[in-house]
Design brief:
alpha/beta
């Protein structure tokens, strides 16, 4: 055997055993049982690596898929519609009220719940002896923490950290670009809807955070959370860009939506209307606390500056 062939075989063997060592090491990093503090401040003990997971919120379902844990999901809600593969997973019904009988029948060893509407139902899940972790991410950082928490309880902490690092790098790229833009040059943004009743996101919402990070000035920054505003409020603010999210919450044809917005009474002098800076976007990129929020951030930056 030639010397070069011997060296190749030695090198290949070293690589094989190094990978085997790393694999064994990574699987040993999580020693069950483990105890975490969920977003309600409750101490939850995970006795063993979860194998049968129920997600009671679309955001939790997406994170599970992004972490490659879809094979462990045994139940999701009717509203868990992304990615496409969710259509093949057993449905437990509505987000609220929860169908306890259906949940029990699926014999889950972990339930990933959402505070919001479900907060009053969480005690019942725990009374039934079901290991339940409640997540309530309200910011981008909270979302990243949710990713890492889910990864940790499922025994793949490194994968969660890697995903968050990648997402953080993309956020930092946008922040770096925006940091050179004077505040006075940043466009004023209005987020509307397809209905006549106007609700817009103010401070304390994911949408507001993304607008700010992308270098925009939210005209509703003086309001807290989602607030109803009248047409005059929008006209007086003179937004440069109008964003209309569509999806389950708001439905409609893009061309019709743009036309309806353009024809609103009293809005003809709004800069965004004059220049037809009206953009229809996928609401899930801004409403759901999932990795796709970063995709939404990047989209906003392109809308604002490219």
């Amino acid at each position: 055997m030639k010397l070069s062939q011997k060296l190749f075989l030695i090198f290949a063997s070293l690589v094989f055993f190094l990978n085997l060592f790393l694999l064994m090491g990574s699987s040993a990093t999580i020693n069950y049982p483990i105890t975490i503090i969920d977003d309600t401040g409750t101490e939850v003990t995970i006795p063993r690596e979860p194998q049968r997971i129920i997600s009671t919120a679309p955001s939790n379902t997406e994170i599970l898929f992004d972490l490659g844990l879809q094979e462990k999901i045994v139940g999701i809600t009717n509203y868990c519609n992304f990615p496409e593969e969710t259509k093949n997973i057993e449905k437990i019904g509505e987000i609220s009220p929860l169908n306890f009988e259906k949940i029990i029948s699926l014999n889950p060893d972990l339930i990933l719940a959402y505070a919001g509407f479900q907060l009053k139902e969480i005690p019942r899940l725990r009374e039934l002896g079901l290991t339940t972790i409640v997540l309530e991410p309200l910011t981008l950082e909270d979302t990243f923490n949710s990713i890492k928490m889910i990864a940790r309880v499922c025994g793949i902490s490194e994968k969660g950290s890697s995903l968050v690092d990648h997402l953080s790098q993309r956020v930092h790229i946008i922040q770096s670009k925006v940091s050179t833009i004077p505040f006075s040059d940043r466009p004023k943004i209005f987020v509307g809807s397809t209905s006549e009743t106007i609700f817009t996101p103010g401070a304390g919402t994911l949408f507001h955070e993304l607008i700010t990070l992308a270098g925009g000035q939210n005209i509703a920054s003086d309001l807290a959370f989602w607030k109803q505003v009248n047409p005059e409020y929008v006209a007086q603010a003179e937004p440069d860009i109008i964003i209309i999210p569509v999806g389950v919450m708001n439905q409609g044809d893009e061309s019709k939506i743009k036309n309806n917005i353009s024809q609103r009474s009293g809005w003809s002098n709004i800069p965004a209307i004059k220049k037809q800076k009206i953009f229809v976007v996928n609401e899930d990129l801004f409403y759901r606390a999932v990795p796709r929020l970063v995709e939404g951030l990047e989209l906003l930056y392109r809308i604002f500056y490219e």
